[in-house]
Structure formats: C-alpha cells, structure tokens
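Attaching the record inline, Q. Sequence:
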Amino acid sequence: MGKIQVMPKVMADQIAAGEVVARPASCVKELIENSLDARATRIEVALVEGGIGSVTVIDDGEGMEPDDAVLAFQRHATSKVHEPRDLARIRTLGFRGEALAAIASVARVRLITRARGAESGILVRVEGGEIHPPEPVGAAFGTTMEVRDLFFNTPARLKYLRSAQTEQARSVEVVQRESLAHPEVAFVCRTERQVLFQTPGRGDAREVWAALYGVGEAKMLLEARADHGDYVVRGFIGRPTQARSSRQHGYLFVNGRPVRNVAVQQAIERAYGERLMVGRYPVYALYLEMDPVLVDPNVHPQKWEVRLSEERDVCELVESAVRAALDGTMLTVAPRVRREAPLGDVLPLHLPDPGEDGAGRARRPHDDPARDQVRKASRALPSDERTPSLSPQEAWATALAVRESAAGAIGLPHAETASGTNEAPAGPDGEEGGVRERPADWQLRPIGQALRMYIVAEDGEDLYIIDQHAAHERVLYEDLLDAWQEGQAQPMPLLAPLELALTPSAFEQVMARRDDLLTLGIEIDPFGAHTVVVRTIPDLWQGLDYASLLRDALQDLASLGQTTAVRDIMHRLATRACKSAIKAHDSLTMPEMEALCRRLARARDPYHCPHGRPIFLRMSERDLAKSFRRIV
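Structure, as predicted:
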C-alpha cells in the first residue's frame, strides 16, 4: 500500500485556517470585509472576552438566500470571482472563498441572514466544520455572524493567544482601520461592558479620525491630494507635532483595502524629512485609488500586502503629495491654555514666500545677494589668536549683524508677506488656535536669556520662548546646505593632514564616495588597511571641531547605500556640523540674541531643528491673562 493518501477534509480546513485565522482579530477582519462586500451601510462589531469568547458582526447588507448561506461555508465557494481573468481585476475585498470555511473549522459559528425581499431569515449552525441543517428564523434584513469559542478543537493554537485585553486591542485596531478605510459606512464597536467608539458614516474621513482619536487631533490634520495618470492620492496627514513613537497610526488604503507597503511608508517618511525627531513616526490616513489591473492583492494569506505594478511612480506621487501638504501650511499652532496644562506649544513663524525681489524678478529660495558680503565679513573677523576675548558665538553674531546691514544696503526686504493664509483649528470653545499672519515689518525683540538655555522674546503681541541650541542648529544647517548647493564652499588645506581609522564597511563606502566628498571640499586618500588621511575640509568648517565631525560623519557613510545622492551626503554632513551650535548653558549677549532672532526669521523651516525638535513656544497676551485669571 502506498504512503501517499488524501488528507481528511477537517484536517485540511484546520491547516488552511492556520494561514487565514491567527487570532480573534483575523475573524473580525474577514467578517467585516464580507459585510462591506455585501454593500452594508452600518456594521456593528461586538467582542466578548476580547474576542476569545465570541466575535459578533452585524450588518444591514444584502443578506443571503438559504442555499447560499449553506454553501458559503464550503472552501473556495465565492460569489466574487467566476473565471481566471477576474483575478486580474479584483474589485472586492474578499475573493478566495476561504475565510468562512477556515473560521468555521476551528470555532462554533452561528449565521443569521435575510436577503432583501425574503419573507424570513435563515439560521445556519457550524461547529468545527460540521454544518447543521438550516432553520427558518425571524431576522432583520442583513447578516449576523457570531463566532464563539475560537480554537476550541485546536488547543495547541488556543494556548498561544494573548490575554483578553491584548486580543481586544488587536481586534479594535482592525475595526478602526476598516472604519477609516470606509468612512461612508457607520461602524459601532462595543464590548460586553461598553461602546468603545462609533462613526457617523457620512463619508468624511476626518469625522472618523475625530471619533477614534478626538476632535482636537482631527482638526490638526492636513489634507493631502495629488493625481497623476492612473493614480490618485488623497487623505490626511498629521503635523510633525502629532507624530507617535511607533508606526501604528499610519494607515494606507489601496482601493479601499487596508494594506502595509514598506516602500510607500518610506516615501511618506522621506517627505517629512527632518521635521520629525529621531524615533518618531507620522500619523496619516492616505487613500490610493487606481485601476484594479495595476494592483495584485493575491500575494499574502491575510491580504495585508499588495503588489503595485508601478511602485516607484506611486511612491513618488505619495511623497510629492505629502511634501506639498507640509510645505503649504503652517505646521504648528499655539494651543488654548488651560490652568492645569503646560503654558505653550510650538509656534510657527510665518515665513515669506520666496516670491519676487524688489525689482519684480523671480527669486529662487536660496538666492541672497547679501551672502557674499556676509561670508567675506565672516572670514575677515579677527582670529582667536589676535582677539582672545572674542568668543565663537560673538564672532558668529557679528557676522550676522554684517549680513543684516548688507541686506539693508542693497534694498533686500527684511520680510515679505506670506503667500496665502492657513486657518488654525478652532480651540475647544471655538476660538482660533492662535496662528496669525506675520506683518511685513514683524520683528522679534529679545528680552533676555532664561536658565542659560532659552531666549525670551516678544513682538508686541505675544511672548516667545526660543530654544537657543535648536535655533542655532537650524541656522548653521541651512547656511551649510546653501553654500554647498550654490558652490560657494571652497576646500581649505589642513596644515597637518588628519589621519582617521574607520571600520571596514565605512572605509569601503568612503572610498566609493571620494569624488562626491571632493565636490564638498573634503579630499580623502587611503592610508593603510582601513585608515584614511584627510587633506582638505570645507572652509565653512573653520572654527569647528572638524576632527570629531569628520570621524562621526565618515563613519555614518557606512549606513548609506551605494546609490545615495550627493544631496543626502550633504544633509548628513550638515546635520553633523550643526552639532557645533551654541549649547545649553552657554551665556549669550544681547547682540548675539538679536542676531539669532533675525537670522532664524529668514530660515526656510523655522519650526524644527535639523533633528526634528521644536524651536519655539509661544504664549499670546490673552493666554497670559487667562493664566493669571485676569479674564475668564
């Protein structure tokens, strides 16, 4: 007798269930998607013991006829695909005909359904894959699916479930994701004790976000939209101040299907760039719409992953949509102050639009006719040997003062009016969140230094607290990038070449990038097995601790790929260089604080330092009065 035999149907179903049904959350996902495919407008999900006891999904969809209700529990029985070519244009969330059979093989299931126009409903019981004869029953139009005692007949899998609280959190997360994917459907999620949340089902994703995370969070979201050829991107992204410590609150939907896609996720994070702190991740709900022929959802057992036909084009479109939303609005607002809350939050400075110069000519964002005069003046400053009393901060402040006078001498405006107005989200009482248009003659007047860490300033209406280190980092970072991009950085020979020992991986990357580094003013030659000798540095690094800067920056190259662009290397080097900014507990003179405030106002991104930390806090006069209870 041969050794090969046909596997019993029950065993085959249980093995298949291992791919489709991993925990109660898997049941929730499959049942909700069936309800959505049935054109439900309202879906209620009830969890008992976190879904381990039971999962019940009630919808008002099309319902099923008695024959279909029984056949639905057979493996590969589906109404959604009929011939092979349908797999190339899948428009439904389910299509394999495996979910109900897999769930029914490892649980006790009750199905109550009534089709539109039917006089009564039908009750079907399935226990461990065994289907009981259907029974007529009174029921509302739609379908109710109850899954009890999950994995009752497979105790080996039951023991791997987590606590009821953990399983409930996983299941609720699925309902949240599906409700965001389909804001046109009203969702209710409840446990045996309470209603966790419900959505209105009016088609507004922002309303769904408000139901899930609060009205304040929803009002701060920015709208992102772009389309190109076969692809449309729409949705909402969070401000950098809304970033979280995990990627859990980033939602991506392709043709209404919640999915995970690493490439698109990385494109979104690239668009945020340095606006995010290290270890923080954006929140978003982005919807990709495309012809079904351009996406293949049949690549993952639970359909969490999809294959995109033109993934690179999609990533570029998503990145541009997110970047445009961030660039086109004020990223932070001053919150309404409560007595028990902190006194302020990040303030956005309304920067001028690059627009035109005084003569009406179009001017690039980096164009600055005063730059040459400033750099010459900076290099003409006395060295430390000639004037030991002149600190690096004082020298830097003096250079900025020269820049201001040079700009005024050639007629540069100190600040142009910002293009467009962005409304701030209303506070809890309906008042504006505090963002206002910056006047053309806006000036930030330093009052003094607090705790040797912060600059306290005012503009006649509001009080500002500036992180001196973060502000100076932003200024140095943009000056370095501007100089490199405009070709104004010159190599400066070192009197004594600097010898640096690198790790093998970093050494290989540095040698592969010698030409790129040379264009940035850094000449490097090999000197031994894993050692390099540095002969020149950018003249902009004069006065900085270039030895430690080079050691860290070159070691960083080991984490960059072979296809990394020169601009990415520039960003990495500039980020390292800005670490030489004035530090906390450095005492500043009033001219230094004035120079820092003037230069920061012209920064392209005054909201965050190059590492994503906020730079400003602000308190309005009204906020101060309310804090002191001068007004109610």
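The longest helix spans residues 164-181. The first strand starts at residue 42 and ends at 48.

More tomorrow.
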